């Protein structure tokens, strides 16, 4: 059974992913973005996507399988996204794909950090067990 939190993450991920797809296939001006262009946007977009994907796939119990599945899915999508942009008059850029990958890894690291914090926080409904002194 999938928890409400995971269902919400999956729904949000779907909407987020659709918004990313539409946004990356619209004409855009990179004026005023500096030498790096839109690499920061790629980084942030894929960090968010990886975080939502991780929660949707693994809940709050991360496994290597979750990390691998999310990394593979995000990098595959990033490649498809870059190539499909040529169909709408934009250009395919290796450095954009690399920024997507670095953002994905950052999103996975953020997910792992949140899971660790959640694991080690005190549980609100559980009383600490009394320590028994050994004599």
Tell me what the structure shows.
By secondary structure, the chain is mainly α. The chain has a domain at 38-120. Helices cover 66% and strands 0% of the residues. It is built from four helices and no strands. The chain has helices at residues 4-24, 39-58, 64-84, 94-120. The radius of gyration is 19 Å and the shape is elongated. The model has no long low-confidence stretch (mean pLDDT 85).
Low-confidence stretches: none
Radius of gyration: 19 Å
Average per-residue pLDDT, rounded, comes to: 85
By DSSP, the count of extended strands is 0
Biggest beta sheet attributes = none
Helix share bin: 55-70%
**Basic shape:** elongated
Per DSSP, the total helix count is: 4
Order of helices and strands: HHHH
Instruction: Indicate the structural class.
Output: mainly alpha
User: Approximately how much beta-strand content do the residues carry?
Assistant: under 5%
- Cα end-to-end separation: 46 Å
Short summary of the structure?
This protein is an all-alpha fold and 135 residues long.
Keyword list:
single chain; mainly alpha; 4 helices
How is the secondary structure organized here?
Layout: H1 4-24, H2 39-58, H3 64-84, H4 94-120
